[in-house]
């Protein structure tokens, strides 16, 4: 899992990325990182077991917090 944001010139990694992987199907996987003022965020998602029945990811809900 990687998260980058647009700093006005480039996509750069967020600071202090934390991913708490879900323990079961249809359970949330919280992704947190230090706040950044940006208009663009890119999520690069790779499951824990790519290519297997347990390796698929989907975005069911995305919440953002704005100041």
The shape, in one word, is: elongated
Instruction: Describe the sheet with the most strands.
Output: 3 strands, antiparallel
CA-CA gap between termini? 25 Å
Q: How many separate domains?
A: 1
Rg, Cα atoms, Å: 13 Å
Q: How much helix, percentage-wise, in residues?
A: under 10%
Look at the helices and sheets and give the structural class.
mainly beta
Tell me, rounded to a whole number, the average pLDDT: 85
Q: How many helices in DSSP terms? A: 0
For the secondary structure, the number of strands is 5
Structure description:
- With 67 residues, the protein is mostly beta strands.
- It has one domain.
- It has strands at residues 2-6, 11-13, 18-19, 31-32, 41-44.
- The strands form two sheets. The chain has a three-stranded antiparallel sheet with strand order 2-1-5, with no helix packed on it.
Brief account:
The chain has 67 residues and is mostly beta strands. Helices cover 0% and strands 24% of the residues.
Topology:
Blueprint: E1 2-6, E2 11-13, E3 18-19, E4 31-32, E5 41-44
Antiparallel strand pairs: 1-2, 1-5, 3-4
Features:
67 residues, mainly beta, 3-stranded antiparallel sheet, two-stranded antiparallel ribbon
């Amino acid at each position: 899992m990687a998260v980058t944001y647009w700093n006005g010139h480039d996509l750069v990694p967020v600071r202090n990325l934390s991913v708490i992987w879900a323990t079961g199907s249809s359970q949330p996987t919280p992704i947190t990182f230090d706040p950044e003022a940006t208009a663009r965020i890119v999520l690069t998602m790779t499951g824990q077991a790519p290519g297997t029945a347990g390796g698929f990811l989907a975005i069911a809900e995305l919440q953002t917090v704005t100041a």
